[in-house]
Each structure stands twice: as structure tokens, then as C-alpha cells.
């Protein structure tokens, strides 16, 4: 039925929640996340978060403001500024800033855009919009925190019949150079010739998403690999609503780096929603992860979380989700438990 498909589209599309209408054509919305988290290892865990055995009250801290302006019936613009977990409040990230033009079933965007690789890419930092405090790290933490690109996209979307909605998106990015801290080292990643396509299909109570990205890049993390390399990256995802039970799974694949996936289930009991997620990484990294938690909705736009996550890796200097190499002459730590409580909101 179209009603169920519309529910899925509402969940898995760009969202602007609880917006404040400044005028009939201009509105402001926002979101945020705050947590207290700790592990049982002194070695930092999770890329960009670096959680260890001392309580951290700002590792997940996120605050975003989004401005939307409907210039006319066909033309609109949007800007999203986010203090991400790795940013300072004084130096937030411009996550997107684009102009969009709609002509019938075609929608063209130009500017800074969100990379449309994953099921929740369009609202990556909006914890209130997904079941967990943070997205499954084995998949969403696999692209060095890249969430946006500068370039253009063109999208076609249409109802095929009363129960099926199809969305096709093609995008291209301009060259980009980024500095990151990976494995305790400052590295530079330079990309060029990045293009991709995304397809989404909604069938009543199930949602499918598939993406392909081709990029030409170079990096200085591995000295033995020089010059530009080709990256062919595929992502697949599905979400199934079965009454109050929500099942979700995604996989990311590439020739030498990624063979990562997760499967997650959450169930809605009034205001409570317990969840469980199992995930794996293979190829470049080799580890498993089990996440158990619960989300409680205090208000329609405010939720709290409590989570326990266990990650186990291999006996090697760079193990699991530890963010710095270990000394191979000493005992290698392979397991870590991550404990988190959190709060998310939108306005």
C-alpha cells in the first residue's frame, strides 16, 4: 500500500525535523547528541571518537543547524552546519550547502552535498532519527569519516505503482584533499574523478538501497603504495518493517579494503525500543562487534540511550577498532567493552 511506502520514505529520506518556520518560505531546524561513554581499555577506541578507560563527556557531542529556503516552487536552497564529534564548537563543519532545482520528477543539486552511500547518509549526525546512539561502526566508520562532497547530483523519483516507489541518483565530485589522523599518524588523502550512482526502491514495508562509487585517489598512510589508485566501492542495504519489529542490514564492499556488514533489529514497546546489532569487518581490518542497547523516547523529539558494545579483533598491532597501533613486543589487547549513555534531540 502507498501508506506503508510513504512511512518508509519518511524514515529513509532527507529530513528536516520539528522545523521553526521563520517565514512561509524560510525555516530553521536543528539537532544534537550528548553522551557519557567509557571503555575497559586505555587504548583509544573508534576512529574520531577515541574513547578510552576514562569517562568521556564530549566524545559524541554533536550539534547541527539547518536552514532551508524555498525560493519558489521549483528552486530551493539548504545549508547545514554541524559541530561533529571531531570538531570544536568554534570550528564546525559545513556539511552541506546547495541549490536545488526541481522540474517534474527530476531534481538537480549543485554545491556541497552528502555522500549518498548508506541508508542513513542523509541524516548521518541526527541520532534521534535512527535506533542507536551512533551508527554501526563496522560500516559507517569504514570511509575515514567522509560524509560530504563538492559537486552536483541529479535525481529522478517516481511512483511505479500504488506499492512501489523508485529513486535513482547520479552524482559527481570535484577533486578534494583531506588531512586525517589515522592509526596515530597525520595522513593526506587526495581524490579525483569521483562519480557514483544510487538506487532506492520502496515496496510497501521494505526498503532497498544500492550505491556504487568510483574514485581515483592517493594516500600516504602506506609508504609502499604510491601514486593514484582506483577505488570501486559498492554498498547494499535493506530495511524491513514487520509490525513493531524493524530489521536493518547493510554491507560495504571494495576490491582490497572493504568486506564489512551489520545486521540490526529493534522493537518498539510504547516509548522503549531495545536493539541488538552484530557486525563484522574483513580485508583491511578483521574484527567482530556485538551491540546491545535501548532507546527511550522522552518526547517526540527527545530520546535517551543506554548501550553496551563488545568488540573483538585479532592478535596484531592494529586490532579491532583501536585507533593506535600496539607494541608487538608486549601483550596485544584484542577485546574492548564500550559503555555509553546518551541523549539526542531535534528542533
Automatic annotation (TrEMBL):
Signal peptide: 1-18
InterPro entries: Porin_dom_sf (IPR023614)
Keyword Signal on entry: yes
UniProt keyword annotations, A-Z: Signal
SUPFAM superfamilies the UniProt entry points to: Porins
Protein name: Sulfate ABC transporter permease
Amino acid at each position: 500500500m502507498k501508506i506503508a511506502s510513504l512511512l518508509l520514505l519518511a524514515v529513509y529520506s532527507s529530513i528536516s525535523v520539528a522545523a521553526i518556520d521563520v517565514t512561509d518560505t524560510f525555516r530553521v531546524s536543528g539537532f544534537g547528541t550528548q553522551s557519557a561513554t567509557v571503555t575497559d581499555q586505555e587504548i583509544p577506541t573508534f576512529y574520531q571518537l577515541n574513547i578510552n578507560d576514562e569517562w568521556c563527556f564530549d566524545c559524541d557531542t554533536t550539534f547541527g543547524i539547518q536552514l532551508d529556503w524555498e525560493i519558489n516552487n521549483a528552486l530551493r536552497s539548504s545549508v547545514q552546519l554541524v559541530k561533529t564529534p571531531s570538531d570544536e564548537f568554534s570550528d564546525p563543519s559545513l556539511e552541506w550547502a546547495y541549490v536545488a532545482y526541481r522540474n517534474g520528477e527530476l531534481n538537480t543539486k549543485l554545491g556541497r552535498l552528502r555522500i549518498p552511500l548508506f541508508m542513513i547518509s542523509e541524516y548521518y549526525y541526527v541520532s534521534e532519527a535512527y535506533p542507536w546512539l551512533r551508527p554501526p561502526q563496522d560500516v559507517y566508520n569504514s570511509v575515514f569519516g567522509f560524509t560530504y562532497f563538492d559537486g552536483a547530483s541529479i535525481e529522478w523519483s517516481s511512483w511505479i505503482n500504488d506499492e512501489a516507489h523508485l529513486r535513482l541518483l547520479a552524482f559527481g565530485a570535484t577533486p578534494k584533499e583531506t588531512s586525517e589522523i589515522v592509526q596515530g599518524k597525520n595522513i593526506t588523502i587526495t581524490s579525483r574523478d569521483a562519480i557514483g550512482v544510487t538506487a532506492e526502491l520502496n515496496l510497501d514495508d521494505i526498503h532497498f538501497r544500492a550505491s556504487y562509487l568510483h574514485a581515483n585517489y592517493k594516500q600516504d598512510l602506506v609508504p609502499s603504495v604510491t601514486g593514484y589508485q582506483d577505488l570501486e566501492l559498492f554498498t547494499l542495504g535493506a530495511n524491513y518493517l514487520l509490525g513493531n519489529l524493524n530489521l536493518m542490514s547493510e554491507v560495504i564492499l571494495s576490491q582490497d579494503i572493504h568486506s564489512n556488514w551489520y545486521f540490526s533489529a529493534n522493537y518498539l514497546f510504547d516509548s522503549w525500543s531495545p536493539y541488538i546489532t552484530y557486525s563484522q569487518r574483513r580485508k583491511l581490518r578483521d574484527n567482530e562487534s556485538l551491540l546491545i542497547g535501548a532507546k527511550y523516547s522522552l518526547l517526540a523529539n527527545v530520546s535517551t540511550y543506554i548501550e553496551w558494545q563488545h568488540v573483538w579483533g585479532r592478535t596484531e598491532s592494529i586490532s579491532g577498532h583501536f585507533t593506535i597501533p600496539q607494541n608487538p613486543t608486549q601483550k596485544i589487547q584484542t577485546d574492548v567493552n564500550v559503555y555509553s549513555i546518551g541523549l539526542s534531540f531535534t528542533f
